[in-house]
Amino acid sequence: MLIIPEIFLAICALSILFIVPFMKKQSYEKIGYLSLIVIFFSQFLILKDIFYSQLIFNGFFILDSFGSFLKSLILIGAGLIIYFYLNIHNPKSLRRPEFSIIFLISIVGMLLMISSNDLLSLFMSMELQSLSLYILVSFSRDDFISSEAGVKYFIIGSLSTCIFLFGTSLVYGLVGSTSFNEISIFMSELYSTPTMLIVGLIFILVSLSLKISAAPFHMWTPDVYQGAPSIVTTLLSTLPKIAAFGVLIRLLVYPFGEIIVDWGKILTILSISSMIIGSLGALRQTDLKRLMAYSTINHIGFILMALIPGSEDGITSICIYLIFYITMNLGIFLFILNMHRDQISVTSIKDLNGLYRSQPLMAGCISIILFSMAGIPPLAGFIGKLIILNIIIDNNLFFLAIIAVLTSVVAAFYYIRLIKSIFFDEPVEELDNINNEQSKYMLCGFALFNLTVVLYPQFFLNLCASVTLSLFAVK
């Protein structure tokens, strides 16, 4: 019997909402652990039917291995983020049960996005995710910066929604349907592509670019990353990106696969601008969360590059890179969440000065993850970048490969600058020691993963190649 994990998650989130008023103090912890159990069972439901393929709800959604893989990745990340939330020192404004409930609702939206097989179902899924994230970004009501970040994110998100709907209306006006299947049939019967169809696709891509923080539509990212509570920034930098890339891949490869030349040019512009702005923009940053925002933009540009050929190998390399990306980002943000001085959260780069002297193990772990993000061999980040560069070179996109290498060198500078601060700079004031044993173990685990991937890269290649087959089987 097929039990759809999104429905299970949604029912559980609503049930928890009814339970909350009857709970006493410290209910946020109980609700948090209950959410963790719900995520675990949702993961089980996905893995149980991971090789199942079917159109559901009259073709509005599709279940396949590709979608199940990305959903599984999102739920793993969601479980870890909830676990971070429960095991670190949070401001009082975040210690409320509503946080976990809204978090679960946003996860439902992300999972639905990945399964969307229609522009209307995609729109509804994106809105469910976005509305939840607007609330989470401004969750610290007493913090002016958090409220400001929430307003900025809401305005940009609303603009993104308008752009998406305008692009969808143009596509619907020409095709007469919003179904991916119908659009694909329409595209295959065309002798020449109508200009307005390409314009509609451009608007949809602009909207999705705002979601993934691709330059030049990245303007909200540094401010929102810095202003949002750190646990919310951890969420923003990982899970919505996976969901948005799932949408991009399914949308471009299947219904619009016939006009790969046209959307390939758009992605080339987005990729190059993201890599350049992401690498150069971080050079003058003094706040760690803002620096990670530009780091995200740079990584997004690198991932977009692999989508340009529209090939099975390119999608496989994206899936591999997303696995490594989420582990690197969660490792960095886990450390940021534990950066405190006198029990007050700090995020300045100067606060890293001399960390090695007081916490050598943590300094070593965070340095491994930073080296991995910089693409230093033989760490996970290097393997992910190498696989994408191989795909790009095989498709004769040499200019893209050159730009990617050059921007990676620039990006490596600001990662290595952080490592220099950790090991060689004189501390102004030392950070509080991380006394949270769970955080120490997890940080060591992330570092060990990035260090040992070189021993079994074939496992990730085989895994991602097998799930990508289902996407191209539709074609």
Tell me briefly what this model is.
The chain has 20 helices and four strands. The protein is mainly α and 475 residues long.
Describe this structure in words.
It is a single chain. With 475 residues, the chain is mainly alpha-helical. It has one domain. It is 73% helix and 2% strand. The protein is built from 20 helices and four strands. The strands form two sheets. The protein has a two-stranded antiparallel ribbon. Strands 3-4 form a two-stranded antiparallel ribbon. Helix 13 runs parallel beside helix 17. It is globular. The mean pLDDT is 89.
* Elements, N to C (H/E): HHEEHHHHHHHHHHHHEEHHHHHH
What helical percentage do the residues reach?
over 70%
- Rg from Cα: 21 Å
Mean pLDDT: 89
Largest sheet report: 2 strands, antiparallel
Query: Number of DSSP helices?
Result: 20
Total domain units: 1
What is the molecular shape? globular
Q: Tags for this entry?
A:
single chain, 20 helices, 475 residues, globular, 4 strands, mainly alpha
Layout: helices, strands, pairs:
Elements: H1 5-19, H2 27-48, E1 54-56, E2 61-63, H3 65-87, H4 98-115, H5 119-137, H6 144-175, H7 180-188, H8 195-212, H9 221-227, H10 230-236, H11 239-253, H12 260-281, H13 288-307, H14 312-337, E3 340-341, E4 344-345, H15 355-358, H16 360-374, H17 380-394, H18 398-424, H19 437-452, H20 457-474
